[in-house]
Design brief:
With 120 residues, this protein is mainly alpha-helical. It is built from three helices and two strands; from the N terminus they run αααββ. The longest helix has 14 residues.
């Protein structure tokens, strides 16, 4: 059983009335250089409201590479996804929330002779 899924090779484009400013151009260039030189993981850190989302969008545009962004909670993930959809309206922007922590496999603890039933 196969799926015939058409791949759309559309360039990543940021649509914004703003341009990178302040520390953003330097951050974009430094992160892009590190990735192009083979680093697999890079981190952009900054205080709230400093333009990390826009900087990341411009970095994606500069590199033209699909990107995985990880957020620590569902609320921030949804907010970030909405911001990226606004910045990159012609590109696919999706988010996934894992519920892995709600699954409890069956377990046995020999020290206490305790059996824990599976809970899903």
């Amino acid at each position: 059983m196969g799926f015939n899924i058409e791949r759309v090779d559309k360039p990543f484009v940021v649509k914004s009335p703003y341009k990178p400013s302040g520390d953003q151009p330097k951050a974009i260039e430094e992160l892009a250089t590190r990735i192009e030189n083979g680093e697999n993981d890079v981190v952009l850190m900054g205080a709230t409201g400093t333009g990390k989302t826009a900087t990341t969008a411009w970095l994606i545009e500069r590199l033209q590479r699909p990107t995985l962004i990880i957020e620590p909670n569902k609320t921030l993930a949804a907010q970030l996804c909405a911001e990226f959809r606004e910045l990159m309206p012609d590109n696919a922007v999706s988010y996934f929330v894992s519920y892995y922590d709600y699954y409890q496999p069956e377990a046995y603890i020999p020290q206490t002779d305790t059996y824990i039933e599976k809970d899903s």
